[in-house]
Amino acid sequence: MSIDHTTPGGAASGGLAPAGAAPGGLPPAGAAPGGLPPAGTVLTAAGLPTIEPPEAVGTRLTAPVPLDPVEADLVIVGGGPRAVSVVERLTARSTTGEPVRVVVVDAVEVGAGATWRTDQSPQLLNNTYSAHTTIYPDDSTPMTGPVTPGPDLVAWAREVLAGTPPVTAGPDVGWHAGPRPGWVAEEVAAIEPWSFPTRRLQGVYFREQLEAVLARGGVELTGVVATVVGLEPADAGQGAAAPPLRTVRLADGRTFRARAVVLAQGMIQARRTPATAERVAAARRHGLVYLEPGMPAERDWDLVPGGEDVIVAGLGANFFDVVAVLTAGRGGRFVARDHHLDLAYEPSGREPHLLVGSRRGLPYRSKSFYGGFPPRYTPRLATREWFGAAATVPDQDFTRDVWPQLARELVVAHLTTLARHHRATVPSVSPDDGELPAELLARIAQAVVPGLNDLVRELVVEPDRRLDVLRLDRPDVEEPTGAQWRAWTRRWSAAELESISSPLTSPRAEVSRAMAALRGQVAGLVRAGAVDAASVARDVRGWFDALGLALASGPPPERTAQLLALVRAGVVELVGEGLTVSVEGDAFVARSAVRGSVHRARALVETRMSKGHTDVTDDPLLRSLLDSGRARLHAVPGPDGRPVTTRSLDVTPEEFWLVDAAGRPDPQVIVIGIPAGDVQPGSAIGATPGLPSPLLAGADRAAAQVLALVREPATVG
């Protein structure tokens, strides 16, 4: 459903329509026949529905949606944290004068966006620490705008817990966050800097901060819940004497005209692949249940049958959400045994039996519980100095020139932890003040990647403690029998439990922390041009990014503890790597590399998550821009001089102006964040206090350009 908490009221100044919502990407849950909105929806004077509190149940029908263009200074497409940050930067840069008239359009919820929508299940958690979320910049982020203090997520949670009321803006700002949901008080009580908040709580934080920055003045905001389908050039539908405005078209026929447009869509989703379309059709033909890939908060999990086999394809970040919704979300309970991460599962009887697998065959490795923040990993071989030197060498092949040093570092992390805490497993290694001996470090530094596995086998006498650098994100048994697979699953479960509950002595946890440190350095090499464009596409984007996610961007430890309990209880069954799923007769059939592994079920859930790739997006605005030539994909020169096309929008590197198919930039259309990620590396990551934030820096840059356009006299003729 699409949601907006704005209370109906009068139009904002400057000719803007009243803040409100229109049907967006998903139909409202419980919609009545004939397209009428559900009970509890009120149509404002402009004909725009806005979700009201339960006590306002009732439906009033008024005038149809107006089709005359509404003028504003700025339209922001996408209403999540990037939009909030742009508005924050506009208010921070505000001077005396007329307020900037801003329209924020989001398909789901203004202020929260799709990822952080506040109506989603509390089972859906963030996978970053509570202390790593803010919308306010500090001195660590390079920008030309002023630093304006404000609460990060943890400080805000403490204010809520202390009974501090939210900051409210006056009626003239046009948009308000609405009343704070009743469940917020309970959730903030559990917040620690190193805890993992629900996504809906983070959405409330974003919405309340949006109203707080509006209270500063300088911006009048109209929030619109709708889908943007078009962005027309300056002269489309305008006379020769009209100012150079851009026209933004919504799916319901409304239009907005503005001097500036900022595209801030966030995590755009992918359109159906041919394989997905065939599964949808097959499910209809055979009466099967198929939940295709997408955001978990937008799927109807009640369709998944309980008490029977369900195939789950995909073991990445969304997988843990699906498991939580289908178990704890259906009344199952997790009970602590020896400690809070060693759990037993008490079923409700309504959960399915989940047969889970993927190409890798392994769920993402978990984050670990430290009772605080994890210690910083200190590299021994892939040091800052090594990366600094590597950054000066242009057009390297990542697999040949960079990956071997990273693989060596992961081996060092593994062996160092064994030598410190599990001496019996490496009897020939005598640590030197907790570190590997210099001669062994030198051997590792000279080893080629296949030789690293030989070295590990030579030094580690206990097979279960060995590391395979060629299969870091896969089982270290290939084509096992059923018995071998079940034995391996038990070993994997024990290793994961050790990793989340005793991370300082776990070699698995140490390797994950090492990968977390190395991933950011690789991004720096790419920005510096040290890896040639073809290798970036083939290797960094092709397999290394996925490896980094699998090892270092996993779920909260509580989620993995729950998964392990479900595996022990037989509710979840890992079926192996190399998963394939076909439709045979009246069932989905899953097969894997485990010999003899064949599973039949009438329900299939695909948990594959979007990677934010623009070339395959289903976002109607981005599709129309690309298809019409108003936008193009970014390309970079390869080592042979030929361009290599990326999967991001092309924008200018400094101003982030949208570039069309002919290479012409549009100074009035600014793109920030994920759709332009190859030009703005790091902008997909949320802002963390005390760390440079490409997201906030991009928002500041966008705000500066918007203000320059708005204050510039209109061109006539």
Structural class: alpha/beta
What's the count of strands? 23
Helix proportion = 25-40%
Q: Could you tell me the mean pLDDT?
A: 88
First-to-last CA distance: 44 Å
- Ranges where pLDDT stays below 50 over 5 or more residues in a row are 4-64, 236-242
Q: Count of helical segments?
A: 16
- The radius of gyration is 26 Å
Shape estimate: globular
- What amount of the residues lies in strands? 15-25%
What kind of sheet is the major sheet?
Answer: 9 strands, mixed
Topology diagram in text:
Elements lengths: L19 E2 L19 E3 L5 E3 L18 E8 L3 H12 L7 E7 L46 H9 L22 H5 L10 H16 L4 E7 L2 E5 L13 E5 L4 E9 L10 H13 L2 E3 L17 E5 L3 H10 L6 E4 L6 E4 L6 E5 L26 H7 L7 H24 L16 H9 L2 H11 L22 H20 L5 H21 L5 H20 L4 H13 L2 E5 L3 E5 L2 E5 L6 E4 L1 E4 L13 H9 L4 E5 L5 E7 L7 E3 L5 E7 L22 H18 L6
Parallel strand pairs: 1-6, 4-5, 4-9, 5-6, 9-23, 10-19, 11-14, 11-19, 14-15
Antiparallel strand pairs: 2-3, 7-8, 8-9, 12-13, 16-17, 17-18, 20-21, 22-23
Helix pairs in contact: 1-4, 1-16, 8-12, 11-14, 12-13
Short description:
Helices cover 30% and strands 16% of the residues. The protein is α/β, with parallel strands linked by helices and 717 residues long. Strand 17 (587-591) and strand 18 form a beta hairpin.
Describe the structure.
- The chain is of the alpha/beta class and 717 residues long.
- The chain is built from 16 helices and 23 strands.
- It has helices at 81-92, 153-161, 184-188, 199-214, 274-286, 317-326, 384-390, 398-421, 438-446, 449-459, 482-501, 507-527, 533-552, 557-569, 620-628, 694-711; strands at residues 20-21, 41-43, 49-51, 70-77, 100-106, 219-225, 228-232, 246-250, 255-263, 289-291, 309-313, 333-336, 343-346, 353-357, 572-576, 580-584, 587-591, 598-601, 603-606, 633-637, 643-649, 657-659, 665-671.
- The strands form six sheets. Strands 1, 4, 5, 6, 7, 8, 9, 22 and 23 form a nine-stranded mixed β-sheet that branches.
- A hairpin with a 4-residue loop joins β8 (246-250) and β9 (255-263).
- α1 runs parallel beside α4 (199-214), α8 runs antiparallel to α12 and α11 (482-501) runs antiparallel to α14.
- The radius of gyration is 26 Å and the shape is globular.
- The relative contact order is 0.14.
